Amino acid sequence: MILQFTLTCFIYIWIAIAVVLFPLQIFVSAPYGRHTKTTWGPMLPNRLGWILMEAWAIIAFWYFYGTSFNTNVYSLFFAVLYTLHYSYRSFIFPWKTKTKGKQMPVFIASSALIFNSINAGLLGYYLAKISNYPVAYFIHWNFIVGFILFFAGFIINYKSDDILINLRKPGETDYKIPNGFLFKYISCPNHFGEMIEWCGYMLMVWNLAGVAFFVWTVSNLLPRALHHHKWYLQHFKDYPKERKAVVPFVA
């Protein structure tokens, strides 16, 4: 009981940190991708950075989940969903991107490792040790809604990434205006899809660790999308003015 109380307090503090950092990230863009800056210290290859950051999320999750392996079918199902997402982000997405020669600050990769260690570790521990799902959990409203949102978000994220990646021909490194699909309405449907995906996951797992993961996802991706949108408007005079940044018809 003492351990769970301490863990609960830690998660609330962790969520509070995400909320506090959110406005800071609105004003300061993370220096990687199109916003890369060499003034943030040593650099490493962009692809290597992505693999290290995302693969660590799998390692951290299974370290905590595996130490107290939970055979509940729902806990295993959620563990598999998490692993599938990060397997794609770790070992498929980085090799699909055409970012040869591009780099990111070691600081960004290191920060992501800390982020993934805590969020993935909390999810793994909660699913293995704390969460307990009933036999007919699949008919609960939050599981149904969460399941739909998770896969809808994944499809949006995957398709949007695919459109962005295919804007470049082999050897090209410049940026172009994406069109089609949800790009008709927003600049960053890939981030929109990922936020929907983890909102659905939060509803399915129905625990405090899932809430923390979703809050941190929004805290990171929403400012990122706003910076991308501003960047597009600054760099392309013919960029569609009716597009929003990340939420269709809203912002």
Labels describing this entry:
single chain, two-stranded antiparallel sheet, 67% helix, globular
Describe this entry's structure for a reader.
This protein is an all-alpha fold and 251 residues long. Helices cover 67% and strands 2% of the residues. The longest helix has 28 residues, at 208-235. The mean pLDDT is 90.
Topology pattern, helix = H, strand = E: HEHHEHHHH
Taking the sheet with the most strands, its summary is:
2 strands, antiparallel
Computed Rg: 19 Å
Unreliable stretches (pLDDT < 50, length at least 5) are: none
Strand order of the largest sheet: 1-2
The proportion of residues in beta strands is: under 5%
Can you count the helices?
7
User: Overall pLDDT, averaged?
Assistant: 90
Structural class, judged by helices and strands?
A: mainly alpha
Quick one: how many beta strands?
2
Which outline best applies?
A: globular
Give helix % range: 55-70%
Please report the distance between the alpha carbons of the first and last residues: 43 Å
Gist of the model:
The protein is an all-alpha fold and 251 residues long.
